[in-house]
Design brief:
Length: 127
């Protein structure tokens, strides 16, 4: 039996209104397994809320792999359960950085590697 792993996220949130100003900036560098810069990587910052995750910011990496996500303010009317960053690029497995902390005004995550996808094979046994 062939098992496929997938990252499942809540539906994408609508584009933020232009009156929202970024309060934080989150930066980093998307690289391949051999530390070469990756251009065009989609970067999304999500925050977990009780009714699903919401997008706080999006960006794409430049030619040097660098990216800067302008973090949008969050509706503070309810609890949040942490933030995570998702980096995705055609031909590579997505990378997820969990437990992202957003100290104002900015934070650099350093290099984040994306790797080729792998195929997992095996059997699931009920214990």
């Amino acid at each position: 039996m062939l098992a496929t792993l997938a990252l499942v996220l809540a539906p994408q949130a609508p584009a933020p209104e232009s009156r929202h100003l970024p309060v934080n900036r989150l930066s980093g560098r998307a690289v391949s397994a051999d530390a070469s810069p990756l251009a065009g990587v989609e970067v999304e910052l999500w925050t977990r809320k009780p009714r699903g995750s919401v997008v706080r910011g999006r960006a794409h990496s430049g030619a040097d792999g660098g990216f800067v996500v302008d973090v949008l303010p969050l509706d503070l009317s309810g609890p949040e359960n942490g933030s995570f960053l998702v980096l995705s690029c055609t031909g590579l497995a997505p990378s997820v950085v969990d437990g992202v902390f957003l100290p104002p005004p900015s934070h650099d995550l350093g290099s984040i590697a994306l790797y080729p996808p792998v195929e997992l094979r095996g059997r699931v046994l009920d214990g």
